[in-house]
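Hi V.,

You were right to ask for the full record rather than a summary. Here it is.
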Amino acid sequence: MSAALRQRHTELAALLRAHDHAYYVLAQPSISDQEYDRLYHELLDLEQAHPDWVTPDSPSQRVGGAPLSEFPSVRHAVPMMSLDNTYSPEEVREFVGRVQKLLPGEALEWVVEPKVDGLAVNLRYERGVLVLGATRGDGTQGDDITANLKTIRSLPLQLQAPPPAAAPVELDLFAPSPVGLPAVVEVRGEVYMTSPGFKKLNQDRESAGEDKFINPRNAAAGSLKQLDPRIVATRPLEMVLYGLGKVEGCRPPASQVEMLAWLKALGFKTPERTWVCRSVEELMAAIAELDGRRKSFGYETDGAVIKLNSFAGRERCGSTSKAPRWAMAYKYAAEQAETALISITIQVGRTGALTPVAELEPVFVAGSTVSRATLHNEEELRRKDIRLGDRVIIEKAGEVIPAVVRVVMEKRTGAEKVFEFPRACPECGSVATRDSATGEGTVVWRCPNTDCPARIRGRLEHWCSRGAMDIEGGGEVLMEQLVKAGLVREVDDLYRVSVGEVAALERMGEKSAANFMAGVEASKSRDLWRLIFGLGILHVGAGGAKALGKTFATLDDLLHASPAQLQEIGDIGEVVAASLHAWFSDPINRALINRLRAAGLNFRSALHNPEARLGPLAGRTFVLTGTLPNLTREAAAARIEALGGRVSGSVSKKTDYVVAGAEAGSKLDKAEKLGVKIIDEAGLLALCGGVQAQ
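Predicted structure:
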């Protein structure tokens, strides 16, 4: 009987794998959902009765196991390199010319694939079973996120045995290779979030009073960094495979086309459309065709990847220290659309800044419908001569934030009206004040009323934000409800509300309320610099707050500092010093500090280390860019600052070191142009001498 049940378990596992592949990879369901559920629960019942039958590749292992304490670091058998990119057709021509010089006399063939906007990962299979999944990291090593990747239903936990020929007959371009199921294979691809799934996820988060994700890529990244795989299992993640790492036990494919066919035969989802090109003209035509098709893919793409087809040719081309010489990413310019500017509304921020917002006739651009766009300030309105009733060009900056690029002047009718920027707050009616001390020469109009409802909401949202006190769930929706219900007016009120009061709010439940209040309680122990930044003092950013935390051991020491003492601090200038002194001299703010003290918040600074002035990094300025393999940016900055170093957000001639990780961007390019020394995480740790941050 046991043997028969064991055989049934094997059959069920194979059946469910086949149905998963048909549904999630081929998009061709082979049975009804009801029948699938029946088979799945039969498998679960057998595994519950016989726990020793559960294998790592069982369909039951996709639901997510127990939470992890951390992500172990793992080394890639073959480095994962990033790609050089361009927005210029001329640079594509130059790239093809460079490769032709490296392969003189050879007829070159290229493959063009969609550049999926996700996160690169490496998967390792041994004897056909998934044993490891890791992030790109610094290209040499990344984080082990196997448990999270297993929750992606389109990703096979066990490979299919491919037919003897790697390439389908219809390609008829390459001699078939005798590739089968390898003893070891590492495959590379991109994890992404589907567009419909992203939209629904944000709707659900908004309903729960949680902050929405900015874009699908951020949502996918945040999901894969969850320590609880059960949360990841609820996220609409997919993966597309397009590359190889280490291969053992069989002869690997000889070209990109052959490899994609082989990956598909193994059971992976591969790019849904590719182009084989033999000239620059064909390449540019393929890039243009992809641009026209990509809106229908159901996921975000931001460009085209151009790869030399022949693997032997790739070997001869080689790589630089950062990227292969045989591939390039062509990135599409931000999508623009024309629409009508119907009206301009004024938003009031936490500091009282009045920000004009364009209310637009809804227009579809870069994958979503846009009906609002920031206009920044009054000067921007005047500089671009934006008027009510204008036809305007909208662009998503970085394909995320909508902005008005310009006015379509040739379509003006004369009926357009100049917008009169208000001199009073639209929320509370207070007379606005003119502030030109922004450090950028820009004039900002502000509401001076600290009790303005809009300013109260803004202060609360800022206090709860990730960069400040990092209170999970403390987003715009919940803060608005708390203020509207009269439960919260100042940040200290958050430490007096009860779980029951929060749970009674609209669209809030006991669990969401408990999670939020747990975050509030945890915030009491945050470091002093976070509290200073969270207070929202005008002109005081995170960098300035950290500088204050390094200088003063306690908040009480800061309270008694004079403007002259404050200006002696590296990142604190005259304007910031005056703002700090004025804020802490205000009796209302002093009373708030006392209430926060009574609530039990931490007033001591872990950054304060007088000996750091004598540390090995004293007087040196660092800039962090890209993703480091082990340290978060925050942890790396803490190590630098603990030893007397300074972390800056921009590269200049005064920068001593740029610490570059994977997918480093324009900061790395600027460092190379300026001749600034570039180091990796290992180089940083060597400079730090292994000293841990406090």
